[in-house]
Task: structure prediction
Amino acid sequence: MDPRFSLLAAKALEFVAEGSRIGLGSGRTVEAFVPILGDWLRQGRHIRAVPTSEGTAALARKAGIPLDTLDPDEPLAVTIDGADEVEPKTLNLIKGWGGALVRERIVAAASRRQIIVVTEEKLVARLGTRGKLPVEVIPFAAPFCRRSIERIGAPGTLQPVLRNSEGKPFVTDNGNWIFDCAVGPIDDPAALDRSLLAIPGVVDTGLFLGTTDLVLVADDRSVRELRRTC
Ligand code: A5P
Result:
């Protein structure tokens, strides 16, 4: 395992309060956090966690973390999640390379704070720089969504490629498919997000704009905290 994941996990634990309900994100970085959280609970502490994917739920059960469901009357204190790109000034994100974007969005919205844990190569000057924007679609609408996505912006702006797993479409925890759209640095992420969400059959996009309160970034030796500056 990348040793930076352990640094991030230890730091993230500082933001979990005894007795709280938290959101648990998805991806390798969170996978490193789950067993450390389990060890912390075995020292006599209590939390309940809402997982953002079936994969995280399985890991959490294995680690002895009590699971919970969303409660509209009781926001989660914090969600600890990963990301695929982070813009340091705005803390805007691209998420979903792991395929859990929809539940990640819902759990983030149900939380008072969203804390993102990343290694430093995830930091980008402009979203899109790492070249991939996931868009979750309803399978019935997939051909229509593909065509509509291709027509956004100048020709070639977004090139949707259906995500595959062992030769078949990758199926999300919600029974949907994902188009990984080849992108470059995005000029106006909010406008792009609106255009994508306006397509019938698009469930959600990997653009997480204005949802993040704090980003923890690990290099080989330490973890630094990023807060929004604009
Ligand atoms: C899951 O859908 C994603 O949003 C993950 O949070 C993201 O891909 C980060 O994953 P890693 O920690 O594995 O890079």
